[in-house]
Amino acid sequence: EVGRAARGLAPSPCLFDQEIVHKTVTNGADKDFLKVKYRETWEHIVRHNEELRLSTMKSVTCSQWRDVLENALPFADNLRVLDVSKNEAIDTPLAVFRKCEQLRELDLSMCPSFSGSLEMLSTL
Which InterPro entries match (predicted)? Predict the structure, then answer.
């Protein structure tokens, strides 16, 4: 449980592109290559994952949660199980889950800052 609380989330490709500008790499042209490879890898993982268990991730900030939920869920075509329970930092509107019609299990327990109507989740 300690390791889970300390781990972070992989940023969306958009955020990665912004962050890599401030990093040092051997060859400046490598940054463009890294952007492409990161996007390909991230999209492959997000598209093919059926289950994400992300509970109790205390080091993840509100903006990091927002980035991942808003940018990953539209690509998560095969996602059936999503557990983001016990994450007080999540303040994303429930509307982000509307795009997840394939979800069969969604655990938002002990996430007090979600906002919006539960009606939005009625199609899940």
Answer: LRR_dom_sf
d(CA 117, CA 100): 16
3-state DSSP assignment of residue 85: coil
Write the CB contacts of 64 (distance below 8 Å, at least 6 apart in sequence). 8, 9, 11
Q: Alpha-carbon dihedral of residues 104, 110, 112, 116, nearest 10 degrees?
A: 10
Q: In what order do the strands lie in the sheet with 105-107?
A: 51-53, 81-83, 105-107
Angular region, 28: left φ>0, alpha ψ -120 to 50, beta rest: alpha
pLDDT averaged per 10 residues, the chain (length 124)? 67 93 84 94 93 92 92 91 93 86 90 78 67
- In this structure, the chain runs to a length of 124
